[in-house]
Amino acid sequence: MPYDTDVARPGHPSHGAGATDAGPLLRATGLTKRFFGNAVLQDVDLELHAGLVHGLVGENGAGKSTLMKILAGVHQPDGGTVEISGEPRTFGHPVQAQQAGLATVFQEFNLLPDRSVAENIYLGREPRRGLLVDTGQMQRDTAELLEGLGVHNLSPATVVRTLSVAEQQIVEIAKAVSYDARIIQMDEPTAALADHEVELLYSMIRRLQERGVAILYVSHRLAELFDLCETITVLKDGRHVATRPAAELDEASLVRMMVGREMSAFFPDALPGTAPGAAALTLTGAGNGYVDGIDLSLRAGEIVGLAGLQGSGRTELVEGIFGAQPFTRGTMTLDGRPVRVRSPREAIRRGLALVTEDRKAKGLSLNQSILDNALGVVHAVFPRRTGTARRGMPGVLSSMAVAARGMDQEVQFLSGGNQQKVVLARWLSTNPRVMLMDEPTRGIDVGAKHAIYELMRQLAADGVAVLMVSSELPEVIGMSDRILVMHEGRLAGELPAGSSEEEILHLATGAAPARPEQPERDDPKEDRQP
Amino acid sequence: MSSPVTGRRRVPITSTGIVFLVLALTLVAGAVLTAMSGRNFFSPGNISAILTGTSILGFIAIGQTLVILAGSLDLSVPYVTSLASLLAGVLMAGQTSNIVLGVVVALGVSALIGLVNGLVVALLDVHGFIASLGMGLILAGYLGTNYKGSAGSAPRDFRLIGATNIGPVPVSTLIMLGCAVLVILLLRRTRAGHHLYAVGSNREVARMSGLHTATPVVMAHVLCSLLAGMAGLLLLARLSVGSPTIGSQGGYDLMSIAAVVLGGTVLAGGKGNILGTLGGVAIFAVMDNVMGVMEVNPFLKDVVRGVVIVVAVAVYARRSAGQRPPRFQKQSLTDAALQEAR
Lengths: 530, 342
Hints:
The structure holds two protein chains of two kinds.
Chain A: H1 5-11, H2 14-21, E1 26-35, E2 38-48, E3 53-57, H3 64-72, E4 79-84, E5 87-89, H4 94-99, E6 102-105, H5 117-121, E7 128-129, E8 132-133, H6 135-148, H7 165-178, E9 183-187, H8 195-210, E10 214-218, H9 222-228, E11 231-236, E12 239-245, H10 251-259, E13 279-287, E14 294-299, E15 303-308, H11 314-321, E16 329-334, E17 337-339, H12 344-349, E18 352-355, H13 359-363, H14 370-381, H15 386-399, H16 416-428, E19 434-438, H17 446-461, E20 465-469, H18 473-479, E21 482-487, E22 490-496, H19 501-508
Parallel strand pairs in A: 3-10, 3-11, 6-9, 9-10, 15-20, 15-21, 18-19, 19-20
Antiparallel strand pairs in A: 1-2, 1-4, 4-5, 7-8, 11-12, 13-14, 13-16, 16-17, 21-22
Helix pairs in contact in A: 14-15, 14-16, 16-17
Chain B: H1 15-36, H2 44-69, H3 77-92, H4 99-124, H5 128-146, H6 156-163, E1 165-166, E2 169-170, H7 171-189, H8 191-201, H9 203-208, H10 214-239, H11 246-250, H12 252-262, H13 274-293, H14 298-322, H15 333-341
Antiparallel strand pairs in B: 1-2
Helix pairs in contact in B: 1-13, 2-7, 2-10, 2-12, 2-13, 3-4, 3-5, 3-10, 4-5, 4-10, 6-10, 7-8, 8-10, 12-13, 12-14
């Protein structure tokens, strides 16, 4: 990491110090918000200073999003005041906040997929010459803006749909910066990024700091807060718990303040009696146009981590196994018997389960009830088992501590962590033999993460083979019995449990000497052409 | 859609490209089939007939494109067309001096209907499908009650618009193409056009970017009704009388939606363009012409149209399924940055 936190922090506020003396850029006092009579935010104070990054943490439901939305003008507070540069302000609409110099990068991408980078950034503020939009000027402005953020090879004319997730995140931030914002709030900007892409984001944030921008940074990745933030505020159950200099805190004390109890060990150990058994699933030379030449074997009772950069084909590999992007080459065996899985339905019948990367788009029917979602797969694929599953469901849901009003509540009203638990319940009810999990803890709070880790250990103890795709290297290292690393659609190598982040990144970036560059590799997508 | 890391990058064909490819194929097939019937497909008379066939549906489909891009729909267009032809025809009553009055009133009323549609959609949050269905029923009821049959009469000077050709190109088609150029300019080079795409693509994103999300929707509906009114005026010029059923006979509501979708515009809004729509309209016109020359049973005509629409949309759906964000086919920006850093 280019930014050595221990050395940098003491001297760091130097350029921001003058601004600090001049008072905070933003001061929120006693903010309170109620929804339907329930207080989701109570008497919360917050100060942001020029050139400093302020971390905001808390479990899902702690009120972080509500606080940000009040500052952004999406919600209006029921009590409390917001001052910007000492002047009291109220925002009835996000645009008013933007005009006051406060921009927000929301967790859900606010981009139009079929419009260009420039059109997205200047939406609503297109430069004009006479009556017509000056597209040339717009593209030049965009190029300059991106250049100023240290981004060099992103063309302003590119259609956003074709960008990687990380590039889309850059466009989001560039859009926020383009409002000449003096205060930028970022809601989990790294939730969708692989570890190496986070570095690019860090460098953008540092450039913003140098310009004297105050940043409110929300993240579930605690390590990031220590890399970036001078001060950290902890919220719990809508109340302010503490605001402390980051130097006085460590991950354990943060977690303690967030959850209000000691987290025994963040990554639980394997349960007693867990023993890897026979190979549950093997692939030989498998390929599906996105990935190729995959040889792997998953044993019953084993948790295997699958690491790799964004776009290295991890998702495509699990979708291949699951029949969502069926393999066109190679062989696959389940419990020693060769099988061809051509659709998710076949995969589910054969005892496979896939927790998808994007639970809102592919994992859940948001406007249906918890029960309907949890029984969805069983009902569709094993109709005769529905009754049994229905009877067992209250037990399954309560064992995972799903916090909800009742089983008939629509899942869209649950927090991310609880939604993910419903996704897991959905698959547990099919009694899978092989559990594929794509980013199972993305964007969920610490408590829910822990619950999911414990569940994975339980699955392994029950003899299920677990394959976990994750961009969070600590999670891969903490949970995996073995680590597979992908690079450009192929397996770049396998590492034993307890390998270091450096070893994984080394393989993931294709730097391994064992696998030299293959300049004229066959395009694996060739035979997908109609 | 695939491009290997090594660079042999195929230029992906756009959906507008496909539309015009299909149009070219239709033209070739049309020429061959017409020749087999012993006629010349490219005779000035036939070309003029095809172009005439494009103009009415062209006006309406251009308007429908705007409405669909904004994420709405307009099912009231055929009734607006009928009403415009009647209002103008009755007001003109065969008098050249009344042409301006008839045109202004017909277009004014059309625009007003669009305004109501747009306001209902944008402010009352009624989907365009329902809002314009209701408006269509109201207009149909009004037309049926007040006009028992054709009415009014177009003066000779006005009829010339429908009858004059410049070379093989009818003036009506030129007016339609002129409108198309203006609308293309609107969509590509004005804020209003950019905002129309934005609202159609994702209203919430547009709102968060500070747009008035109602304005583009209302504008699209007004322009759509206005263009439907112009189609009504053109029909009046051709037939010399206004008719309460001329619009619904043409089936312009569903045919215009079909032409828009055939032209590659996404029915959900936010993506598409006028050129594609014009291609779609032209494909229908050529198919109609060829089947007319070959004296194909009119019911079979509908079967062919139906097949073409469904196949076209199936092709687009397959293409967009393949257009998932490129993963490792393309070196990502950050991968490049990382390599540079090493």
